[in-house]
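Subject: sequence -> structure tokens, single chain

Hey, anyone have a minute? Need the predicted structure for the following. Not urgent.
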Amino acid sequence: MFRTTENERCGTLAPHACPSRRFNHMTSRMARSAGLIGVATMASRLLGVARETVLAAMFGSSAPMDAFNVAFRVPNLLRDLFAEGAMTAAFVPTFTRTLTQKSEADAWRLGSLVINALVLVTGILALLGILFAAPITAALAPEYALVPGKLELTTLLTRVMMPFFPMIAVAAGAMGMLNARHRFFVPSLSPAMFNVATIMCALTLAPVMPRFGQQPIMAIAIGTLLGGLGQIFMQWPLLRREGFQYRSILSFRDSGVREVLRLMIPGIVGVGAVQVNVVVNTYLASGEPPGSVSWLGYAFRLMYLPIGLFGVSIAMASLPDISRHAVAEDLTAVRHMVSRGLRMMLVLNVPATVGLIVLSQPIVSLLYERNRFGPADTLATAGALAFYAPGLIGYSAVKIASPTFYSLGDSRTPVTVSVLSVIVNLALNLLLVRVLSFRGLALGTALAALFNAGALLWLLRGRLHGLEAQPILIAAAKVGLASILMGIAARATWHWLNIVLLGGGELLRIVRVFGAIGVALVVLAAGAKLLRLEEFDEVWRRLFRRFLPQRPS
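Reply:
Had a minute. Here:
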């Protein structure tokens, strides 16, 4: 009834002149963009699962795999702090503001300035990381010194992978500019190059590395570097077609660069809270039973699959529009976009959370259990995954809330909240690791992510004079109930298929897992329909319509 009345009232007004039509237009564009990002990210994340499957089969939870996980933690942490996380949150709003208020030429000039500044700063940090790799790795994993050669291998791998950091900084700069231009597909697909390069090096280089006096795990470090280069090369042609021409200019006095740095420096702490928590886990897990670091690593990356598919895609799609409305000081539009993004995120991530909890063991078994990854590894990784899963909602909400603060010119609030979340995570992990061993580290991280998200959203509510709380709570309640029914159906179906389809063959495992997932999706869709969950219909219609035949309008 409301829609009809509103449309009649608006009549033939242009979308920008009618609030409901304007918001519907923004929502449709956000959903379409999220669909593009979701498709590209799905391809990348599925390749990521393939990458993890290959690594699990070749290295399992062995000492070299533990060493690689700790070694990669250092450049990966720096990447998330300085490049993809804080840089994107600070650069996209600034680039968008320059594009809107000045000119395209000024925006492209800012792009060159920011990329050159990033290369200089990250290059220096990477060099320092190479020089001080030994004390860094010893601080991260002191218990590795008790195993002959393990700490030395970790240090060597850290030195080899440090150049990955400046490579990803450049790739993140390109991604930021393309996203600001509403180009999402190629930037979202570019991380697939990292997974492709790693898989290829694992299959081709790892077997021959001993001939060169190196352990096979060194091939994975080389693949990491090639993957970083691949992410740059994949985006650069599209960036050039958009009009970008790289210029070798550098100025830290430029107003745009200073604005990016002003937002980015505190954002290094703010957006990087998740990875800081992971480093804390790495330190504590290194003192737990051998293989704990690898189990947590496999579980965390598997848990991150739906974040990449759903959380990141929605956040990336909404950020340019949020930035534009923030520049125009249109808080009503910002509030609507944030609310809409949160509801879409809940519709996708609450079922994913329940699914990962109830099917953690069969999913881990299907993806990882082969060769050097045995049943004991499956149980350990599945336990960690089930405890990580509740953090899905927290991580995804932060990816929407934190950049919104940056778009509003406020970098202090997410920093303060993130520092508090790191403290909460440390306290929880120190307590829970004594009770649940490495699984307690996963649970502590998940609870800290939920705390981070809750605090940010509460404070954002004050900044935006509300968050359209009632629609969000109604959507959360409905999707929560539908997800519980889905989880019961999924678990019951898997148990029934285990009885009916006896055996441990690969095909039977696939049938059992996908049979349970299929029934779960049917129950979820039916529950959403009965509960009249409008956001589910919106997600299905917009986000997944590229996979379905279109009905004539």
